[in-house]
Design goal:
With about 575 residues, the chain is α+β, with helices and mostly antiparallel strands. The longest helix has about 50 residues. The strands form six sheets. Strands 4, 6, 9, 11, 12, 13, 14, 15, 16, 20 and 21 form an eleven-stranded antiparallel beta sheet that branches. The chain has a six-stranded mixed beta sheet with strand order 17-18-19-23-3-22. It folds into five domains: about 55 residues; about 100 residues, conserved putative lor/sdh protein from methanococcus maripaludis s2 fold; about 80 residues, Elongation Factor Tu (Ef-tu), domain 3 (Beta Barrel), CATH 2.40.30; about 100 residues; about 100 residues, Immunoglobulin-like. The protein is elongated, with a radius of gyration of 47 Å. About 25% of the residues are buried. Strand 30 and strand 31 form a beta hairpin. Helix 2 packs antiparallel against helix 3.
Length: about 575
């Protein structure tokens, strides 16, 4: 039996379905499944359309600036307003440097031997000629005895040759006399010619023996001189077993221990002259032109009890490192009081110029917009950006040589999120009445911090740990000192609680935008640097703004220490 469906397909009912109930149930089931599939397809189509509409509308909205500080309605931005000052200014740039000894040398042995004594220790003062170490001298003493024996034999040979020469000279003299007498007799005819010729031949033979004896004596004297020189050389080499100081100074380090077999070219001690020391800093190439030999430099150390020291630049190295784009600037100072120790960090503030009359603004008032130096000027309660040109810079102020008249009022703090025409409210008086600093406690305003070792103290880039490390001391610096968008090279220094470098640690760096806490950012594993306790890494800062770098250090002795650093990418 065949039935027609609405779609034209023929349905057959086999003999196993004598009645029509089976095929009716089959048709109902198929029609129900078709409706479900159509309904699902319609739901999927409607969801895709809704998503496309949502994405188009959302993408058309402007993206929020991650550094924007939001205010509601007409609420003014709280800022600190200061006037432009007039007065003298001395431009300075500040770098961290290190102390190097005036002269440092490694003490080497000149002969092979085993160290049997080393009477000096690190910290001991030494003078030229003082014995610093002694080597085993048994072998060299035996060589001296051999040279002495050879010299004695040479002297005996010379004595024998002298006697032989004296004997041959006597024989030669006698033969000459006989030949002379025979010649006289031959001339008178008293002797035959043959007898005369025999006496002449004997005289010539005696002369030859005398010359041979003289040659042997000369050879003996030459051999004697050689053996005397060999003895002197053996004595000098024997003296090399006493390793002595060539210059005055202080023992810095023992490089080997007594009992070690050493050989020429293997250092055993390090001696340094520290009565005068070299204060050296790696200065960026943009500041090199304003620093010259004789320029004043203020030097401070981490010791709070020591006052700053004023010195003068004694050398500007004529070479810029192509990697760091820095050159060494050095100040040579007396150190008779042992105030400075080689290897210590110092802060060096170089004077770059002086102006008696200048327009001065606080460093915190300087901002950068579209790559230009800008200050925010307040007019009738509204903020307006104004490009300016900077001159001399110091830690307390910045000279403005173009862009200001001196009558303006500027925003020193709170520029984050400002836009042209934004309403501002001066909170300077409020902060002072509260007994606090108007420059502190504002959102997004990092407090002044110490500059990491090896980096310039740049007010635009605050680099300091936000939390102290529990077990290890971690410091971080960037290359270049003012990070920019893109790849930034990091130099991390790790020391233990005693200040000793920590080597073999696992150092990991994670970067995140300060305006978006919790959002994962780029990370990197640092590799060991060229100096002990230093590590290097590279992170990619994708956008401009404030970044937080979290450094996790896993000590080889166990335990992990973390520190956070804030940098500003431009």
């Amino acid at each position: 039996m065949k039935l027609d469906r609405t779609d034209g397909e023929k349905l057959e009912v086999g003999p196993e379905h004598p009645s029509g109930d089976g095929w009716r149930r089959r048709i109902a089931t198929r029609e129900g499944g078709s409706r479900v599939l159509k309904l699902l397809a319609l739901v999927v189509l409607m969801a895709a359309a809704a998503w496309a509409l949502y994405a188009n509308l959302w993408s058309a909205r402007p993206a929020m600036d991650m550094s924007m500080r939001m205010t509601s309605g007409s609420t003014p931005f709280p800022v600190v307003i200061v006037p432009v000052e007039r007065g003298p200014i001395t431009g300075t740039v500040t770098y961290t440097g290190s102390i190097a000894p005036f002269n440092e040398e490694d003490v080497y042995p000149r002969v092979t031997g085993r160290i049997v004594e080393m009477p000096v220790y690190p910290g001991d003062a030494v003078r030229p000629g003082q014995v610093l170490a002694r080597l085993d001298s048994v072998e060299l003493s035996s060589r001296i005895r051999e040279a002495e024996a050879a010299l004695a034999a040479a002297r005996a040979t010379r004595t024998q040759m002298e006697k032989e020469l004296a004997m041959t000279e006597a024989e030669a003299g006698y033969a000459r006399g006989v030949a002379t007498r025979t010649e006289q007799l031959f001339n008178t005819g008293a002797v035959s010619k043959q007898e005369y010729e025999n006496d002449r031949a004997m005289a010539a033979s005696a002369e030859a023996k005398r010359e041979a004896a003289r040659a042997k004596l000369q050879a003996a004297e030459s051999s004697l001189a050689q053996n005397e020189a060999a003895l002197r050389t053996a004595g000098i080499v024997r003296g090399y077993t006493d390793i002595v100081a060539s210059t005055p100074g202080y023992v810095v380090k023992r490089l080997v221990a007594p009992g070690v077999l050493v050989q020429p070219g293997m250092p055993v001690l390090k001696v340094a002259q520290i009565d005068r020391v070299r204060l050296q800093a790696n200065v960026g190439e943009k500041d090199l032109g304003s620093i010259r030999v004789g320029s004043p430099v203020g030097v401070t150390t981490i010791a709070a009890s020591q006052p700053p020291l004023m010195a003068k630049v004694t050398a500007v190295f004529p070479f810029v490192d192509p990697g760091s784009r820095t050159a060494v600037v050095e100040a040579l100072v007396d150190n008779a009081s042992r105030r400075f120790l080689p290897g210590q960090y110092v802060t060096m503030q170089f004077a770059t110029g002086h102006r008696d009359e200048a327009l001065i603004v606080p460093p915190s008032a300087i901002a950068r917009m579209d790559g230009k130096v800008t200050v925010w000027v307040v007019n009738d309660g509204r903020a307006e950006p104004r490009p300016v040109v900077m001159g001399l810079q110091s830690t307390n102020g910045v000279e403005i040589v173009e862009g200001l008249t001196g009558a303006e009022r500027l925003i020193a703090r709170g520029q984050e999120g400002l836009y042209a025409g934004a309403q501002v409210s001066d909170i300077t008086a409020t902060a002072r009445e509260a007994g606090g600093d108007a420059h502190k406690g504002m959102a997004g305003m990092p407090e002044a911090t110490a500059t990491p070792p090896g980096q310039k103290n740049d007010a635009a880039t605050a680099q300091a740990p936000t939390a102290p490390a529990a077990d290890l001391k971690i410091s971080l610096s960037t290359i270049p000192p003012s990070p920019r968008v893109g790849e930034t090279h990091l130099r991390i220094e790790v020391k233990d609680a005693a200040g000793a470098p920590v080597q073999g640690a696992k150092v990991e760096v994670t970067a995140g935008m300060s305006a978006m806490p919790g959002m994962p950012g780029p990370s990197a594993t640092a590799r060991a640097g060229t100096e002990a306790g230093t590590y290097e890494a590279t992170v990619n800062l994708g956008t401009a703004g404030a970044w937080t770098l979290e450094v996790n250090v896993s000590s080889p002795r166990g335990g992990t220490t973390s520190s956070k650093f804030k940098i500003e990418a431009k």
